[in-house]
Design a protein that fits this description.
CATH superfamily of the largest domain: Type I PLP-dependent aspartate aminotransferase-like (Major domain)
Shape: globular
Number of strands: 12
Order of helices and strands: HEHEHEEEEEHEEHHEEHHEH
Radius of gyration: 22 Å
Distance between the termini: 11 Å
Number of domains: 2
CATH architecture of the largest domain: 3-Layer(aba) Sandwich
Length: 391
Amino acid sequence: MTLQMPTVKPVDGRFSPGPSRKRPGWTPDFLKNAALGRSHRSPLGKQVLKEVIDLTREVLEVPDTHRIAIVPASDTGAVEMAMWSMLGACGVDVAAWENFGYAWITDAKSQLPLNDLRIFKAGYGELPDLSQYTGDRDLVFTWNGTTGGARVPNADFIPEDREGITICDATSAAFAQELPWDKLDVVTYSWQKNMGGEAGHGMLILSPRAVERLENYTPPWPLPKIFRMTKNGKLNEALFEGSTLNTPSLMCAEDHIESLKWVREQGGQKGGLSWMHDRADANFKILQDWMDKTPWIENLCAVPERRSNTGVCMKIVDPRFTALSPEEQSDFASSIVKMISAEDAAYDFGSYRTAPPGFRVWASGLIEPKDIENLIPWLEWGFETQCAATF
């Protein structure tokens, strides 16, 4: 029997995993005083970019020992910048379990001429055996699988006395999950994930060990201009003070500054970062509690401590659905997303195109818990309505 259509919608139905929704209460009014139409090399432009770096250090609680830079091409550019500049000095391990991690495998295996490469790979919703990493090699991995809904629960698999450097793609983890700075030598992310920023800008955070690698190792392959972090064998310090390698958008930078200030103001004495972590956890719990009591849907990640609290990935497990062909399953799930979107109740919450058919709901700290609660009846209505039309 088809459920009656819900009457209450999320106030903000944007559940996209990136670009994700803006912070609550966001308006474009801040642009009236923004540094628009100004050179990023002007005193004002440099001031804006340096403020991004300084606020990032404060809000994300980055140690003073680490360097922070704004780099081109979003998180992808930041990861590839690190890979092209640092890998090849020793053996390399690449661990991946979803689409973006698979891209780093392609880079390491098919694009970079790495002679000593090991691949640790798992499917969507799972983790590979990370105990295979012994610390005497470099490691490239994603902290949180943006498209697969599985994350590493901690960094215990990285030895304290490691010799290699660790390159961590943290784009859907930063500001939602704890990052152990002592275990991570390169951390990358983009503004448009957990901070609701605009696309195109990546963040690159380097430990002293990463800086040492850059200053003492020259890769055997040519580096494009936008990948070069050193000059005359030394770190290009200007890059880590806001002198970017290409032309950044000051509008996007000003927008990110406003978001960082908003996060800083949350949480009282506990701090804005902890508040963001807690709110993502709370939003995830709403979804997981619903999945636990609903027989037709499950978390794509079967191991509770590995489940993402940002991109929450769900699979449909109703026997009638699982009996369908892969193409029919994809059509079934897509029809639910389209149906709910057509009612202006929620948008962009379908599974990633190469992931198992189902839903992916963004649940980070910028999402209001009430919106998550009000989404659930729509998912139930969409499923029952599609079942009535299909079976």
